[in-house]
């Protein structure tokens, strides 16, 4: 099959950021499929350009994946208006780039942003190929709830576009069961048209054994310190003020140290706030390429996965969650949902109520004082990753969904296999 996919951002292990499209695409290519990915020429995690492009786009090959990077302005801007301009700019030029390649058998568009579904739908209509819409987040609900989008007209248009794309897609793939439940319950999508395929980790790269980052040289952190680490984006949704509150409360224990590694719109403010409070136990590090992240996670004693409190926090499973598990790093979460359900019952992590600084401090102090218990949590953490979160499984699941919608006759055996694939994937996620 020839699979064409639209992703606003596409990253490999050579740069910082999420790698879902790269990990799935290269496995599909190994299985004999042809994959074309159309993306922008920006790295979301760092705000830098991934590569130089021509006037409109540049075409490259990465491990057999045909990658087309469209040149757009304001690619990784943190300000709302430039970001919207960048998203809208991507629509026509990504569509034109898609017309420059041979006809695909299926087209996939991966939101966010929601607007990325437009070129997917247009190609679906023009080339008459099935259209799959992937939901990595729930837009526009999250931006509206958090107050990022307040313009009433923009909100109305966004909800109309969301509904339109949901109706026109042959199938929806959600990254969490929480998102799936939301679109079935509140968006009018039938359960038969949506399935969850979560993110995962490269279990050969993210391993419990291997080199460990020298935080003593990088940040003057003692070699025997109990390290609580947050990797990835430092954004509004990550509830990192909660972490600062906890760090302030344990200043009396120099054996407990905190590391925030990454970039994001909140980083400068958080650094100022940490300086104001004299949080000498809190260290900021710049992001590193994905391939270098495991060394840092192996050094951590506790991985931080926080989300800003709100009615939709249960839908989240952040990229760092999978990386921590794969490296056998225990996790602390502050929100209900799948993250807690995966780690707490098997003692691979701990849950603290959102906003409850007392509970956060108590959990960190307890684990820091009992290193043996913290080390014991590493084994079930890795086991959870091996059981549920390997990219090999996810790529195979994705191919089943793709194969099921690429049919010519509605009543053919291939068409009926769509429901079989959905049932099989649901059973696997529940195990």
The class by helix and strand makeup works out as alpha/beta
Taken from the alpha-carbon principal axes, the silhouette is globular
Question: Which architecture name of the largest domain does CATH use?
Answer: 3-Layer(aba) Sandwich
Fraction of helical residues = 40-55%
Poorly predicted ranges:
408-417
Give me the side-by-side strand order of the main sheet. 5-6-2-1-7-8-9-10
Number of domain modules? 2
Nearest-integer average pLDDT: 90
* Helix count, DSSP H or I runs of 4 or more residues: 17
- The amount of beta strand, in percent, is 15-25%
The biggest sheet, with number of strands, parallel, antiparallel or mixed sense and barrel status, is:
8 strands, mixed
CATH topology of the largest domain: Rossmann fold
Per CATH, the class of the largest domain reads: Alpha Beta
Give the tally of β-strands.
Answer: 16
Describe the model.
- This protein is α/β, with parallel strands linked by helices and 431 residues long.
- It has 2 domains: 2-200 and 390-430, Rossmann fold (3-Layer(aba) Sandwich); 215-387, Rossmann fold (3-Layer(aba) Sandwich).
- The chain is 42% helix and 17% strand.
- The protein contains 17 helices and 16 strands.
- It has helices at 20-30, 80-99, 117-127, 141-145, 152-168, 177-186, 215-219, 240-249, 267-276, 293-299, 319-326, 338-343, 357-369, 371-376, 378-388, 391-405, 413-430; strands at 2-7, 34-40, 42-43, 48-49, 57-62, 65-70, 106-111, 131-135, 171-174, 194-196, 226-231, 256-261, 282-285, 302-305, 331-333, 349-351.
- The strands form 3 sheets. Strands 5-6-2-1-7-8-9-10 form an 8-stranded mixed sheet, with helices on both faces. A 6-stranded parallel sheet has the order 13-12-11-14-15-16.
- The longest helix is centred in the N-terminal third of the chain and has 20 residues, at 80-99.
- The chain is globular and about 65 Å long.
- The model is unreliable at 408-417 (pLDDT under 50).
């Amino acid at each position: 099959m020839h699979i064409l996919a639209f992703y606003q951002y596409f990253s490999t292990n050579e740069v910082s950021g999420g790698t879902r499209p790269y990990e799935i695409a290269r496995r599909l290519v190994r299985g004999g499929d042809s994959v074309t990915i159309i993306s922008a020429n920006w790295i979301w995690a760092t705000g830098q350009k991934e590569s130089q492009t021509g006037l409109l786009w540049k075409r490259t090959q990465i491990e057999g994946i045909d990658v087309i990077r469209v040149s757009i302005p304001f690619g990784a801007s943190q300000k709302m208006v430039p970001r919207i301009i960048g998203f809208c700019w991507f629509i026509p030029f990504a569509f034109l780039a898609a017309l420059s390649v041979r006809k695909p058998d299926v087209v996939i568009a991966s939101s966010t942003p929601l607007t990325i579904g437009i070129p997917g739908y247009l190609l679906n209509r023009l080339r008459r190929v099935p259209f799959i819409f992937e939901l990595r987040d729930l837009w526009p609900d999250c931006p509206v709830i958090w107050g990022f989008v307040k313009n009433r007209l923009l909100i109305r248009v966004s909800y109309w576009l969301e509904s339109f794309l949901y109706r026109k897609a042959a199938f929806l793939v959600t990254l969490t069961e929480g998102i799936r439940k939301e679109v079935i319950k509140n968006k009018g999508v039938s359960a038969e048209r949506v399935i969850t395929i979560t993110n995962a980790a490269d279990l050969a790269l993210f391993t419990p054994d291997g080199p460990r980052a020298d935080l003593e040289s990088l940040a003057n952190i003692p070699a025997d310190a109990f390290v609580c680490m947050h990797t990835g984006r430092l954004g509004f949704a990550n509830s990192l003020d909660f972490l600062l509150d906890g760090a302030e409360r344990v200043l009396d224990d120099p054996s407990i140290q905190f590391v925030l590694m990454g970039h994001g719109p909140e980083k400068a403010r958080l650094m100022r706030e940490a300086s104001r409070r004299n949080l000498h136990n809190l260290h900021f590090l710049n992001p590193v390429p994905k391939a270098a992240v495991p060394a840092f996670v192996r050094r951590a004693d506790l991985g931080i996965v926080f989300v800003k409190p709100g009615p939709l926090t249960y839908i989240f499973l952040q990229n760092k969650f999978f990386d921590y598990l794969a490296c056998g790093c225990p996790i602390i979460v502050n929100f209900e949902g799948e993250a807690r359900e995966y780690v707490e019952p098997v003692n691979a992590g701990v849950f603290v109520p959102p906003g409850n600084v007392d509970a956060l401090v108590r959990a960190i102090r307890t684990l820091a004082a009992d290193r043996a218990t913290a080390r014991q949590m590493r084994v079930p953490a890795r086991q959870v990753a091996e059981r549920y979160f390997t990219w090999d499984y996810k790529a195979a699941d994705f191919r089943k969904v793709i194969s099921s919608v690429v049919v010519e006759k509605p009543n053919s055996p291939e068409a009926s296999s769509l429901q079989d694939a959905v049932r099989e994937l649901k059973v696997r996620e529940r195990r």
